[in-house]
UniProtKB/TrEMBL annotation, chains A, B:
PROSITE patterns linked to this entry: HTH_TETR_2
Domain HTH tetR-type, residue spans: 9-69
Pfam families: TetR_C_6 (PF13977), TetR_N (PF00440)
The protein, known as: AcrR family transcriptional regulator
Species of origin: Streptomyces candidus
Amino acid sequence: MPPAPGDREARRKDVSEAVWQVLAEKGFGGLTLRAVAAAMNVSTGMLMHYFPTKRALIAHALDLLETRTAERPRRARPAEGLATVRTMLLDILPLGPDDTARNRIWVSSWDLALADRGLAADQAARYTRLRDSLRPHFVAALARGELGAGAAAPDQLAASAVAFTHGLVVQALFDPARFPEDVQTAMLDDFLGSLRAGEGSSGGSC
Amino acid sequence: MPPAPGDREARRKDVSEAVWQVLAEKGFGGLTLRAVAAAMNVSTGMLMHYFPTKRALIAHALDLLETRTAERPRRARPAEGLATVRTMLLDILPLGPDDTARNRIWVSSWDLALADRGLAADQAARYTRLRDSLRPHFVAALARGELGAGAAAPDQLAASAVAFTHGLVVQALFDPARFPEDVQTAMLDDFLGSLRAGEGSSGGSC
């Protein structure tokens, strides 16, 4: 008898969870049917029903990463301007275990993406969307007089904020003891503080 | 007759060049004996003399990356303080083809390094050295009064500068048209300008 639809759905979730575990531990470089099968304690043959090719497995992994990133819990965004930017960037940083796993998998995906024209274009588009999502809050910060008179254009501020945040992600992933939550947060606050009008590098929070 | 020592040395250089080409194009995820052999138009059997295992190939690739990074041409460092920091960070950014290839290979190596305890420790130590090399110039910048009164400690400024730079590297690798040399340089100058004493975000160069 074929499994009931509910069973198939449950099994599909188990497969996704196992793919995620393998990614979090070994990255895309270590993502194989064998590794996923071992994480689930099933045969690779069983997994071939889900992923007939390595490419299908990678496509599922990238989908999963995209979905889990979109659906991650986020902080409330009560304000506008630099305070909103701060909240959005805190939602990216690897401050807890789930955020750390997600970031670790994103960083891992860059090797894959840089070697594939289509995936590289996807990643470039993802960066454009991220900058575009920050941009209006820098526009608001300018309008509210939060930024220094010589502040760069909102597009460039958004690119700089993404640069700072992702570069901090990478350093923190390699050295979590050097970059615990409070250090990452203080660095973000100093970065944003340095953009503030007339304060130089304030070191304060938004 | 065995090849003369000079021939062996020349062949070794050819092998390294082929490894570099494969890395620049496909990253560590695409680094295989087969790919290197194809780049050299030789048999994989011939390459087995150099790299009996995949691990030996990866070790050579990492050595090559380390060596080529250490030996890359660098800008003169005429001044101290923030001007020196600027020069050091310009020497990291992917402003030309060689710098782009090297950065692309470094970013690719992160997937490998995050999955291997020893390589991750090497990368964490590399980040520590990079921050330590920047630190004295932030100390000098503070002593020279170049930084705002509320400036963060030199350790944290160094970590932020590395974060900003590496995050810019990644964005530029994925979208070189959006981040040509002048945009990267302007972003770096704005970043450093925002740290300057009493200017807020000055947008000027050091």
